[in-house]
Amino acid sequence: MRFYRDHIYTHLVRVLGNPDPIREVRRQIIPQAQGVVLEIGVGPGVNFAHYDRAKVNRLYALEPNPGMIRLAERERRRIDLDIKFLGLPGERIPLDDHAVETVVSTFTFCTIPAVADAIQGIRRVLKPDGKLIFFEHGISPDLSVQRWQRRLEPIGKRVFGGCHVTRDIPSLLAQGGFRIVSMKTGYLAEFPKAWTHCWWGEAVPE
Ligand SMILES: C[S@@+](CC[C@H](N)C(=O)[O-])C[C@H]1O[C@@H](n2cnc3c(N)ncnc32)[C@H](O)[C@@H]1O
């Protein structure tokens, strides 16, 4: 199981997690990060290349999976950014209150087991005028797709490291004390719709 998590799952995320429509959204939203930035669940570090070096003072790259950190280290070597890895889960962010200007989460709220705790922690470390940039997938508004999502979720959780496709991320953010200030939504691929219903945008602490 550990071998699967640290070696096979990591490569699945690297290979499947960045098709063209997803890369295009990353290219639009990640350069909006500024100041001291915390990225939750950086995985193989696919967002690193999209940060605007002129705007980011430091990037805290939180990731609990050592196999992912190995891949992300390779990405880090290619870019000129001050990156500090934090090898802990998102439920235990080891930063002071109000320590960061921007938090970034892409396809991570689907996976974090205690996601409500992680969102509370993000709120704690964000400055009052800071922002959360999110790009997540989850429950579809279409009932026929929802049915597939509920059927496929147990398989997806096993294959993709605990990924839930039935989470309603905008509602979780609202319950965690965030106000969404901009958001786009849609299927980023026609097939399989169960995996590709996404939301992306920015939220601020209430
Ligand atoms: C689907 S991958 C997304 C990776 C990357 N953010 C991206 O956009 O491609 C989910 C990531 O969440 C990480 N993860 C799993 N449990 C976590 C936790 N409790 N806290 C933070 N990250 C976690 C996984 O190791 C994995 O790197």
Bound molecules: S-adenosylmethionine
Mean of the pLDDT scores? 95
Spatial shape: globular
CATH class: Alpha Beta
Low-pLDDT segments: none
Percent of residues in beta strands: 25-35%
Major sheet: size, sense and barrel closure? 7 strands, mixed
The CATH homologous superfamily is named Vaccinia Virus protein VP39
Order of strands in the sheet with most strands: 3-2-1-4-5-7-6
Oligomeric status: single chain
Helix and strand string, N-terminal first?
HHEEHEEHEHHEHE
Structural class: alpha/beta
The level of helicity is 25-40%
Count of helix runs: 7
Total individual domains: 1
Based on the coordinates given, report the CATH architecture: 3-Layer(aba) Sandwich
Give me the Rg, rounded. Answer: 16 Å
CATH topology: Rossmann fold
Total beta strand runs: 7
- Termini Cα gap: 40 Å
Give structural notes:
The chain is of the alpha/beta class and 206 residues long. It has one domain: Rossmann fold, CATH 3.40.50. 37% of the residues lie in helices and 27% in strands. The chain has seven helices and seven strands; from the N terminus they run ααββαββαβααβαβ. It has a seven-stranded mixed sheet with strand order 3-2-1-4-5-7-6. Strand 4, helix 4 and strand 5 form a beta-alpha-beta unit. Helix 1 runs parallel beside helix 3. The model has no long low-confidence stretch (mean pLDDT 95). The chain binds S-adenosylmethionine (SAM). S-adenosylmethionine binds next to loops. S-adenosylmethionine (SAM) binds next to loops.
Briefly characterize the structure.
With 206 residues, the protein is of the alpha/beta class. The chain has a single domain, classed as Vaccinia Virus protein VP39 (Rossmann fold, 3-Layer(aba) Sandwich), CATH 3.40.50.150.
